Fold this protein.
Amino acid sequence: MFFKKYPRFVATSSVASTPGRLNLRHQVIFDDNREIFEDARVLDIASHDGRWSLAAIEAGAKHVTAIEARADLVEHAEDNLAHYGVERDRYQVIHGDVFDVLGGSQHELEADVVLCLGFLYHTLRYQDLFHGIRSVDPTYLLLDTAVYRSEEPVVRVKAEDIERQGNSAAGQLAYDGRMLVGRPSPAALELMLDSFGFEVEKKFDWQRFLRTRPMVTTVKSYRRGDRVTWLCRRRH
């Protein structure tokens, strides 16, 4: 169990940090896709306290570049990776707004695998996001996101409090302590991916996976279909 082996991550974040939930997500996101990480360059978008950056390195990635907007989480990520003995030349943690970093010229970013885990529903800037992801020329994009259950290609919009750690971080588009964000429907998400040259290679079947675990209560959003985990491949 990843988070039993690396327990600091349960303490350095208060966001959905139940070990059982985190371990199931690690199993689905990393163990089920381990082959794509071998000797890969990984970009971890909205990397939080470094948990998934370390998971990518443990899965075989040769280098991870992490982007995180919150200074305290950048500090936690640096401390956590150093504490667990990750060689300094195997990771870089960039403190900055995801869109500024992806769209700027300060950092030359290249990646074989992009992780977009728990971020997509904290923005409405989908075109900027997918354009930025496409610009780093990845082979794979791993998405784990909340979605709005609808058969139509629509987005449900809401306003988030930017002071809460698990919400959108402050940015130039925030106003009066809030940021407009949205949850796309699966159909909308597929349309966005297709428009930027990605095809969904695998949709993890959470419902089937959880049928053998009826007592698990920490991943209700996945069980209901309110959250999805997709492996996407860039079309050449």
About this structure: DSSP finds ten helices and nine strands in the chain.
